Amino acid sequence: MRVEILCTGDEILSGKTVNTNYSHIARRLGEVGLDVAWGTTVGDDRASLLAAFRQAGDRADAVIVNGGLGPTVDDLSQEVAAEACGVTLVLSDYWLQRMTESYARRGRVMPANNRKQAMLPEGAEFIDNPIGTACGFAVTIGKARFLFTPGVPREMRRMLDEQVIPRLLKLGGIPGVTRLKRFHSFGIGESRADEMLAGIPGLAIDGEIKLGFQAHFPELETKLAARGATEAELAAKLAPIEAEVRRRLGNFVVAEDDATLERVVLETLKAGGHTLAVGETFTSGAIASRLAPLLGAEHVFRRGVISPEMTAEGAADRLRAESGTSHALAVRMQLDEGGDRPDFGATVTVQIADASGMVQRVARLVGGREWVRTGATELGLDCLRRHLSGLPVDERIDFERR
Amino acid sequence: MRVEILCTGDEILSGKTVNTNYSHIARRLGEVGLDVAWGTTVGDDRASLLAAFRQAGDRADAVIVNGGLGPTVDDLSQEVAAEACGVTLVLSDYWLQRMTESYARRGRVMPANNRKQAMLPEGAEFIDNPIGTACGFAVTIGKARFLFTPGVPREMRRMLDEQVIPRLLKLGGIPGVTRLKRFHSFGIGESRADEMLAGIPGLAIDGEIKLGFQAHFPELETKLAARGATEAELAAKLAPIEAEVRRRLGNFVVAEDDATLERVVLETLKAGGHTLAVGETFTSGAIASRLAPLLGAEHVFRRGVISPEMTAEGAADRLRAESGTSHALAVRMQLDEGGDRPDFGATVTVQIADASGMVQRVARLVGGREWVRTGATELGLDCLRRHLSGLPVDERIDFERR
Question: What is the pLDDT of residues B171-196, one digit of tens each?
């Protein structure tokens, strides 16, 4: 099945807004096995929209249109869709009532121009939007089924997962349900992770469960995109593979799904009834800045100190004693001389002190000032996670040089 | 003149990479008065590329193609361009030599597959790339001039400004030279800035000097895109308008062009021979994290303290005394109760202490946990900038509630 994405709107076309909706849609489709063949961007312009609809209708089997469903005059998607289909716009009493009720619940009267959002091409299939006033819809133009989605990212994302992808899978004769399992790791690059996961039956880039990676330094995201006839069948198929991936990536997994490394560290500290002080040099508050603002951190994170001149010897022990906390994390960086450059590096010393003493980890990172700063921030947090979980803090990572 | 952008590459098409090249190109073109009419994205696929070239060649006067100029087999731009033009690829001896020399200067031998990057469609116009191995080129397909640029962002950006835009302006019969002047401000929204700049002769969205805004909270970027027959004429025309914009935006301007608020603060501290300590609560090191890692900050930034329980009374004075610095900045936040929500707010207290005493600024910010944290970080830095420059620290900003 050939799928295209068509993004509309002057803000996107002019580059004022970076088109993250496009990348989100394309990635999610790829994760369920639907590869995007073509992307088009046009502005809020009747002639361009009509031409884009007709061209995509000639080429594709399915087209996801994003944007242009708002209440203002420059939102043209319904109108031009109707024109391309050769039908008129008709009022959806159902959606008008839903919008009116939604405003009423918040003690407000629906503005008159929102009525436009309930006008759909005659015969269009209604697509629900449980969290906004722009409903989606589907029509056929040329040989393609067009699915219209709102430009507001959170509304689009939910509609995509709950409404659009199931319809596309049905359209493509691809049965069943899908799920995306995600592992966040630190310390291994994409190629090493790929090696570590080689040979797991049923798991491959083109396997029954699709394996994918997304690197956003310093973390790597490993994704398992699974499909099954039913939820039960999917769960039964995914569970052993998920467990095997978790086992193989092992100590490098810092969090899963929507969790983050800092959240995992905070929850572990909370569960143990611990308190924390953090000392930093060149990371300059970047470690504190990931932990301290978290909801619930106020009882755990007691103190952060940033001092470019923090000495290495016993820093965490001293910090712990001064702060009166159960744990202290100190991350010191000795930077190379001179200005920024690709081979600019630093020697990072991570110390963790608790009631039982102090552990230390030294690593050399290279890759420019911001790169090593980001790497050291993650390394400090990850060493703390490992220490709290009884894992070795000195396991070699791919980013360090010897 | 109708201009289109055509982006190529599987990473972009699949959404794995967010297409920031597109938004950069479109924005830069808009700034010189060239509006983009259509955007196309295709993968590393011969048939799609050829179809996309032909369609754009039918519609447009000029097409900027981005990507596909690399040394590997999936980089197809030159090949498919030659096919679309009905010519063969010929070796550019000049570019082959330039590449060979560039490798030799770094003590390396050019890999054999880089030779592919010197193969251009017969009769193509060569476009220089002074910082990479992918040269650009231009050919005519259909009725449009196609300008091919590399996918590596820094190479594309430089080629766009130095080579592509001048060619497009010439092609469109738009004479002269262009310049972009940028002001970064904090505390005023786009609509207020627009009002403040109303009525400056020659400056408007569609004026001789194009006025544009780009909001990236907490800062607003105000851009003046100017064109002149010659550099001298341009400078003469821009200077008085630039001065007037600077005067009207006044105390809200935190930096200009490539400078940043934190760099301005650091340079002002350095120039005065000052040293600084920073105390934070919920900003959690975000202020320190913007100042301390800057090149040259090591002699100025002496100490940062993050303590969720920092008391308001005399915090900056105490911090200054304890740290032995000439200046201290303390930013305290009292957060609203409960979880995150759009109307979650905080009362921010900024204190600055120096030898002459202490100044204080209190503001209430609203907009969710991360939003108020970002706002308070900027407010703290901006109050320090203002204090160091003898400007009032208590000027009301658009983001605060009373």
Answer: 999 877 888 899 999 999 888 999 99
CA atoms of A274 and A267, how far apart (whole Å)? 10
List chain A residues with CB under 8 Å of B15.
22-30, 36
Distance CA B224, CA B152 (A): 27
pTM for this entry: 0.83
Q: Is the ipTM of this complex over 0.85?
A: no
Residue ending a domain, among A137, A171, A205, is A171
Which candidate from A40, A42, A304 shows the least CB-CB separation from B285? A304
B286·A284 Cβ contact <8 A: no
* Residue among A19, A42, A280 minimizing CB distance to B19: A19
Q: What's the domain count of chain A?
A: 3
Q: Are residues A155 and A219 in the same domain?
A: no
Residues of chain A with C-beta less than 8 angstroms from the C-beta of B306: 278, 285, 288, 292, 301, 303-306
Q: Which residues of B touch A295 (CB under 8 A)?
A: 339-340, 369
Residue of A nearest to B15 (CA): A23
Beta strands A89-91 and B177-186, pairing class? unpaired
Q: Which site among A41, A214, A262, A310 would you substitute to test the B interface, given the most B Cβ atoms closer than 10 Å to its Cβ?
A: A41
Q: What is the pLDDT of residues B38-61, one digit of tens each?
A: 999 999 999 999 999 999 999 999
> Is the domain of B292 the same as that of B188?
no
Residue to substitute from A44, A306, A307, A370, interface B, most B β-carbons within 10 A: A306
- CATH code for the domain in which residue A116 is found: 3.40.980.10
CB contact, 8 Å: A260 with chain B? no
Nearest CA in chain B to A27: B15
Q: What is the CA radius of gyration of chain A?
A: 26
Inform me whether the C-beta atom of residue A37 falls under 8 Å from chain B C-beta atoms: yes
CB-nearest partner of A303 from B13, B42, B306: B306
HEC string for A215-247: EECCEEEEEEEEEECCHHHHHHHHHHHHHHHHH
- A236-258 burial by CB neighbour count: b if 16+ within 10 A, else e? ebbeebbeebeebbebbbbbeee
Indicate whether B225 and B279 sit together in one domain: no
How far apart are the C-alpha atoms of B368 and B374, rounded to whole Å? 10
The answer on A183 and A42 residing in a single domain is: no
Choosing among B4, B7, B13, which should be mutated to test the A contact, i.e. which has the most A CBs within 10 A?
B13
Query: Binning pLDDT at 50, 70 and 90, where does residue A215 land?
Result: confident
A287 and chain B in contact, CB less than 8 A: yes
* Pair B165, B178: CB distance under 8 Å: yes
Looking up tokens 């340079």, which residue turns up? B267
Task: Please answer yes or no on whether A23 and B36 come within 8 Å at the CB atom.
Answer: no
Interface residue of A3, A12, A13 to substitute, partner B, most B CBs within 10 Å: A13
Closest residue, chain B, to A19 (C-alpha): B19
Look at residues A128, A149, A171 and tell me which one is the last residue of a structural domain.
Answer: A171
Averaged pLDDT, A343-358: 95
Parent domain of B277: 261-401
- Tokens for B254? 């935190």
* Whether residue A239 sits in one domain with residue A119: no
Of the partner residues B16, B52, B285, the one whose CB lies closest to the CB of residue A288: B285
